[in-house]
Amino acid sequence: MTLGWRIQMALDFADLKQTDLMEKFEISRGTASKWCRGVGTPPKKFVLNEIAVMCGVSARWLIDGENPRPDDDPDGGERAPSGIRTPDPLIKSQLL
C-alpha cells in the first residue's frame, strides 16, 4: 500500500477530489495527481497531517500505513477498515 494510494483512499473516504487538494494547498493539477499516484516528490509531513485532518483519517495511517492503536485516538472514535477513522459529521460538514 503506497502513500499515493492512501492519499487517494483518504480523499475517496471523505468524498473529496484532487481539486480540493489543489485549492487547499495551492498546488497544480499535476502535483495533486502525482501525490495521488505516488509519483515524484511526496508531500511534506505537515501537509500529510493536514490532508488527514481534512479527510477525517488517522495521520499515522496516512503517513506510515500503520493502523493506529486505540490509545492513539484521544476521543475514542470508531475505526473503519484499514485504519481509516470515521469522520465527525460536524467537522466534515465544515469542510464542504
Largest sheet: none
Hey, roughly how much beta strand do the residues contain?
Answer: under 5%
Low-pLDDT segments, ≥5 res: 74-81, 86-96
**Secondary-structure element sequence?**
HHHHHH
Mean pLDDT figure: 81
From the N-terminal CA to the C-terminal CA, the straight-line distance is 28 Å
| Number of helices, counting only DSSP H or I runs of 4 residues or more | 6
- SSE class: mainly alpha
Identify the overall geometry.
globular
Radius of gyration: 13 Å
Number of strands: 0
Helical residue percent band: 40-55%
Could you characterize the architecture of this molecule?
This protein is mostly helical and 96 residues long. The chain is 54% helix and 0% strand. The chain has six helices and no strands. The model is unreliable at 74-81 and 86-96 (pLDDT under 50).
Tags for this entry?
96 residues; 0% strand; disordered C terminus; 54% helix; mainly alpha; 6 helices
Secondary-structure map with pairings?
Elements: H1 3-13, H2 18-25, H3 29-37, H4 45-55, H5 59-64, H6 89-95
Helix pairs in contact: 1-3, 1-4, 2-3
Summarize the structure.
It contains 6 helices and no strands. The chain has helices at 3-13, 18-25, 29-37, 45-55, 59-64, 89-95. Residues 74-81 and 86-96 have low confidence and may be disordered.
